[in-house]
Design goal:
Length: about 325
């Protein structure tokens, strides 16, 4: 038995190996079976085992799904985003794998195997092999049922820096026409500067009410060049900021203290700051619209506050 070779293969594959690799290392099927029955190894897929005891991790299950699929298979969709630890996304239990059109083989429970004529080259140094994140976002948007889940996946991936708006747009242009419509709507939100689902909900509310659209996630600098803030929504002329006050998006504990301190600095620079909860946006939109409209109408006179430098959010 070539223990060193098998250990190195397992290391490169996140702790899981194929039955073929086990055989190549000189381990007989009967010896492998004894290890699995004795819970020294764990069977993760029909042809994949974990060469250690204990429950396989989510990453190991995904790697097993790729090995079971064979060829140049890659994880994509919500699975790729989950393994990249994208926040604010509901992932579910399914493992989403891309394989070449015409690929066949034994299926693994809990895996959605999607055949494609446009199989991407995997990102380097990822375990398991992973589709480029713009493609993963597009596949996620096509797979999920709810529009909000698609919006959350795309917005959070861009906000996390996994892919840019331009990359996502280019990927959507290469996709089949039937898969574009939902992504095009999300791209419109991203192009406006929106970077989270609560912000997107607020934007729909503002635009639907006929209010002037603010700048979303613009960078606001003090006259000396120091960054003051990156507010969710900014009406520059009216010096009005609206922040979505979400524990999920703005944190808790020390993060909440920093959020309050940031609001204090904005007010000290002459900005009017109005906070709104995501739940209020969804459940009492009329009140939110009324409050914003009133604040816009009550533009106060210039009191000699410092002139701020505003840079719009770029793709």
């Amino acid at each position: 038995m070539d223990r060193d070779w098998l250990a190195e293969v397992a290391r490169r594959q996140g702790g899981v190996v194929t039955v073929a690799q086990v055989r190549r290392a000189g381990v007989s099927d009967s010896a492998r079976g004894r290890r699995v029955r004795g819970q020294v190894w764990v069977r993760v897929a029909p042809d994949v085992v974990k060469v250690s005891a204990g429950e396989p991790s989510r990453r190991q299950v995904a790697m097993a799904a790729v090995l079971q699929a064979g060829g140049d298979a890659v994880v994509t969709g919500l699975t790729a985003l989950e393994l990249a630890e994208v926040p604010h996304v509901a992932f579910g239990d399914e493992v989403h794998v891309l394989v070449r059109a015409g690929c066949s083989g034994r299926l693994m429970p809990g895996v959605f195997r999607e055949r494609t004529a446009r199989l991407p080259v995997a990102l380097p140094l990822r375990v398991p092999p992973t589709a480029p994140y713009a493609r993963a976002v597009l596949d996620a948007c096509s797979r999920v049922e709810r529009d909000d889940d698609a919006r959350s996946a795309a917005l959070s991936a861009v906000q996390s820096g996994l892919c840019g708006v331009a990359e996502l747009r280019a990927e959507s242009e290469r996709a089949p026409r039937r898969r574009r419509l939902r992504v095009l709507r999300i791209l419109e939100e991203l192009g406006a500067g929106v970077r989270s689902l609560p912000e997107a909900d607020l934007r729909r509310l503002v635009c639907g009410a006929g209010l002037p659209e603010p700048l979303w996630n613009a960078r606001v600098h003090l006259p000396d060049g120091r960054l003051l803030c990156v507010p969710d929504a900014l009406w520059e002329e009216e010096r009005l900021v609206v922040e979505v006050d979400s524990v999920a998006h703005h944190g808790r504990g020390e993060d909440r203290v920093r959020t309050a301190e940031r609001a204090r600095r904005m007010r000290a620079a002459g900005l009017r700051v109005f906070s709104v909860l995501p739940r209020t946006i969804r459940e009492d939109g009329a009140a939110v619209v009324g409050a914003i409209a009133g604040a816009l109408a009550a533009r106060r006179p210039d009191r000699g506050e410092p002139r701020l430098v505003v840079v719009a959010c770029r793709e």
